TrEMBL record, chain A:
Pfam families: BPD_transp_2. One of its GO terms (biological process) is D-alanine transmembrane transport. Keywords: Amino-acid transport, Cell inner membrane, Cell membrane, Membrane, Transmembrane, Transmembrane helix, Transport. It is a multi-pass membrane protein. GO terms for cellular component: plasma membrane. Its main location: membrane. The keyword Transmembrane applies. It comes from Flexilinea flocculi. This is Branched-chain amino acid ABC-type transport system, permease component.
Automatic annotation (TrEMBL), chain B:
This is Amino acid/amide ABC transporter ATP-binding protein 2, HAAT family. InterPro entries: AAA+_ATPase (IPR003593), ABC_branched_ATPase_LivF/BraG (IPR030660), ABC_transporter-like_ATP-bd (IPR003439), ABC_transporter-like_CS (IPR017871), BCAA_Transport_ATP-bd_LivF (IPR052156), P-loop_NTPase (IPR027417). Belongs to the ABC transporter superfamily. GO terms for biological process: L-amino acid transport. It comes from Flexilinea flocculi. It holds the Pfam family ABC_tran. The keyword Transport applies.
Length: 303, 240
């Protein structure tokens, strides 16, 4: 019993990260009908920003309070990653706004490769894996045989809070309304006095910010390297598709489902190497029976 | 007395996909007027409105609003300058609620203190929208969607409203309602109207002046009354 509770906790931790990244895929798809295949690598970039900022802050002679260092690292990662994402959008995707969709998909894949290889070639980073220094003391607790750490609880809680806030932004604010309006009919949106390009940039900022929250937390728990975005990005992408691409809550649900698959595969199958097999099989089976994903609605023919 | 027209379109040429949709159009709209543009399908009426709103680029000629040229001003900026546009086919956001559709149209407004009043005005003109405020706009009937499209244009607080075929697809009784509402908006709110209509009979009833557009050129223009009695107009657009 404790064993399962323990695994559920682990699944929530991993699932939180997938969910945060999946949100970026789903929001960009919602307004541009573009799968931003570079998004997993944008997540990777966020972990490096967090790595450098935290190393810098911890290297200062003055001892900063841990909470300050953590929050500053998180905010810097969000801001830096947003900047990278907006630059990618402006330089790589915007010129292709009227191009065939396949050109955009190939460009997105190319941008991903560029980010990975830039990081490897860039001397201060290189191909080796690293660990973000501990920004606060993470203690281990044990309740009724279930162990968990401060970090683990923080990953689950902060991710949860970020998702609730993002959901509120999309459902309740004018920016969220504009995003949803664009997903329906981007040609009419300018007649409301709204710049579609501005809303697209804001969408990339929101997606990059939640990915950076995931990236900072992830980098504190696991090692980071320039190719980490590939596998995690694919899993997050599957999360978005499983939940229903274009659907915010679907991406969250999908993220947790994939987290459970990752953790529970080795519980029921002989080795953890089956996890990709299980995840992709689920995707294929789901696409046969519910092509729109769990929470996705069939696309309505828009006139 | 300032006699610069509110809207001046001068020798406008628009081509797209290799087709010259407008071949040198000139027209003016004075403040406070209802001007209607009548013509058959494909005459270029929608293209003209879309060029004024900045939705399509034009190759030559000019459009100016209160004397300010609109060349190369982005569509969303033109809304801010005071031109609202009820697009062909209504263009409502079916996935947003009625309230959200209206709210979104206030994006550029700085007079946030007047928003309650603006909502009251729209709900006063269209009580049905108030009843359905929290419903997704996609669940509205065609007539209600048209009300929402007009309401949304009102919410942008423009001084000039462009309407593209507001009567399209509506039952005759609803056509009369919507045309009457447009007149009311002009008379009570002082909004200047440029109305594109296939239903020339209804449009000429409320318009002060009218232009007839035929395959990209203006073939006739004058007082609405005058055009209503013109045998050519009667034969071509008023059913004999």
């Amino acid at each position: 019993m404790q064993y399962y509770v323990q695994q559920i906790l682990n699944a929530l931790q991993v699932g939180s990260v997938y969910a945060l990244i999946a949100l970026g895929y789903t929001m960009v798809y919602g307004i541009l009908t573009l799968i931003n295949f570079a998004h997993g690598d944008i997540f990777m970039v966020s972990t490096y920003i967090a790595f450098f900022v935290s190393t810098l802050l911890l290297g200062l002679t003055h001892h900063l309070p841990p909470l300050f260092t953590f929050v500053a690292t998180l905010l810097a990662a969000m801001a830096g990653t947003s900047l990278v994402a907006v630059l990618i959008e402006r330089l790589a995707y915007k010129p292709l706004r009227t191009a065939p969709r396949i050109s955009c998909v190939i460009t997105a894949l190319g941008v991903g490769l560029l980010l990975e290889n830039f990081m490897v070639a860039f001397k201060p980073i290189g191909p080796d894996s690293r660990i973000i220094p501990a920004l606060f003391e993470s203690r281990n607790y044990s309740i009724a045989g279930v162990t968990f750490s401060t970090l683990q609880i923080m990953i689950i809680l902060i991710s949860g809070i970020a998702m609730v806030l993002l959901d509120l932004v999309v459902r309740k604010t004018m920016i969220g309304m504009a995003m949803r309006a664009i997903s329906w009919d981007k040609f009419t949106v300018p007649l409301m006095g709204i710049s579609v390009d501005t809303i697209i940039s804001i969408t990339f900022i929101l997606g990059a910010s939640v990915a950076a929250i995931g990236g900072t937390l992830y980098g504190m728990a696991y090692s980071i390297d320039p190719y980490m975005g590939i596998r995690i990005g694919w899993w997050a992408f599957i999360s978005a598709v499983v939940g229903g691409i274009g659907n915010i809550r679907g991406a969250m649900l999908g993220g947790y489902i994939l987290g459970f698959i990752e953790i529970f595969t080795p519980v029921f199958l002989p080795t953890s190497t089956y996890r990709d097999f299980v995840a992709f099989s689920l995707l294929l089976v789901l696409l046969i029976f519910k092509p729109t994903g769990i929470l996705g609605k069939p696309a309505v023919q828009k006139v | 007395m300032n006699d610069t027209p509110m809207l001046t379109v001068d020798n406008l040429i628009v081509s797209y996909n290799g087709i010259r949709a407008l071949q040198g159009i000139s027209l003016t709209v004075q403040k406070g007027e209802i001007v209607t543009l009548i013509g058959a399908n494909g005459a270029g009426k929608s293209t003209l409105l879309r060029a004024i709103s900045g939705l399509v680029a034009f190759q030559s000629g000019s459009i100016s609003f209160h004397g300010v040229p609109l060349n190369s001003i982005a569509a969303h900026k033109i809304v801010e300058m005071g031109i609202s546009h009820v697009p062909e086919g209504r263009g409502i956001f079916a996935n947003l609620t009625v309230f959200e559709n209206l709210k979104l149209a206030t994006w550029t407004r700085k007079d946030r203190e007047n928003l309650d009043e603006a909502f009251r005005r729209v709900f006063d003109l269209f009580p049905r929208l108030k009843e359905r405020k929290n419903q997704p706009a996609g669940t509205l009937s065609g007539g209600e969607q048209q009300m929402l499209a007009v309401g949304r244009a009102l919410m942008t607080n423009g001084s000039l409203m462009l309407l593209d075929e507001p009567s399209m697809g509506l039952a005759p009784v609803l056509v009369r309602d919507i045309i009457r509402t447009i007149q009311e908006i002009n008379q009570q709110d002082g909004t200047t109207i440029l109305l594109v209509e296939q239903n020339a009979r209804q449009a000429l009833k409320i318009a002060h002046r009218a232009y007839v557009l035929e395959t990209g050129v203006i073939s006739l223009s004058g007082e609405a009354e005058e055009l209503r009695n013109n045998p050519k107009v009667q034969a071509a657009y008023l059913g004999g």
